Amino acid sequence: MIIQAIRLYPCRIPLDRPVITSFGKMTARSSLLIAVEDPQGHTGWGECWCNFPSGGMAYKQRLYQDTLAPHLRFDKDAEPHEITTALHQSLRVIACQTGDRGSVAQILAGLDIALWDLRAKQLDLPLAAVLNPHHTSQLPMYASGIDRREIAVRLDAARSLGIERFKLKVGFDPVTDLDAITSCLTQLAPEERLAVDANQGWSVATAMSLLPDLPSELSWIEEPILADEPFDHWLRLQELTSIRLSGGENFLHQDDYDRYFQSIEKPFPILQPDVCKWGGITGISRLFPNIDPQQTQYYPHFLGSAIGLAASAHLLAAEGGGGLLEYDIQPNALRDALGTEPLPIKQGHYQISDRPGLGIEPRPEVLNTWCQAVIPLDLAD
Questions:
Q1: CATH number belonging to domain 5-124+367-376
Q2: Is the pTM of this model over 0.90?
Q3: CA gyration radius for the chain?
Q4: How far is residue 353's CA from residue 104's CA, in Å, rounded to a whole number?
Q5: Annotated domain spans of the chain
Q6: pLDDT, tens digit, for every residue of 64-77?
Q7: pLDDT tens for residues 255-289?
Q8: Of residues 159, 135, 154, the one with CA closest to residue 144
Q9: Other CB atoms within 10 A of residue 82 CB
Q10: N or C: where does the chain have the smaller number of CB atoms within 10 Å of the terminal CB?
């Protein structure tokens, strides 16, 4: 691939009401978008995860400019996965030296998404079709971000999109969490289902005490404990409940996934990698041959703009295993209003269209409104 320009678009939208999680408060939506352009005028778009901490977007912007840019060399015959693999090798030392594998993985993930979007546009194919010609096209969604402070409002917002599956934020304290779960369950119709996300908020001891008391009708429990707890702790928790556990969004390295797939007993049956946090299209698509549907279901995690949502959708379509697509039901103009076309959502499903690439072309007026600057990267000679 020949790349003639790369631009960063740091976007930030203040929130009318902060999003509260077990580990902090989010007062604004931040999305660091990446555009890569070839000499023929095609532009691919990617997204780098930067929701936390509040200064994360500025830091990753500098990583792109100062750390990644000197390594950007594009051979005309190189494919996206080859470019990303080479960059991972080039940045291994700096990731180890700084102890910041996560941020390095995230900037590479954002660039990788953009390169794949560009490649699919060059081929005039949807990205899902490039990854798997036999991809699925109708992706069932669930609504995350159900806040205990406004359960009814968020449930109704999800229902307006035809969504019947929901995920409630918990992970605060056992009494508050049980009250919120009970309140939410009483507001569901018979055909509707509820999962919970503790955002790593419970200690192992708290989780062991709480899990047997959770209503058995819950669909799954997401990240009840820290993502880096030994797998034995996860397995002990799973033995305490018939409710499925989920995790993986905070795996930082290929080694984490290797340990997961090499485990005879899986620490959690629902695997939730985030395309903008680790791996991009290259890394996550490489996981698919290891997924045994008898042991693991792929439910991509995502919280960000329309770019990352589309990338998650195309990966889920290519994997074809029947998982669910996450749709954060909190207001987000960078998701809902970013593209020149409305999001392809109908009757609770994300539709993979025939549009090439991710199918998302950002509107200049939205970028002009919420983008703090347009930052070109200096490409290596």
A1: 3.30.390.10
A2: yes
A3: 20
A4: 32
A5: 5-124+367-376, 129-351
A6: 999 999 999 888 88
A7: 999 999 999 999 999 999 999 999 999 999 999 99
A8: 154
A9: 14
A10: C
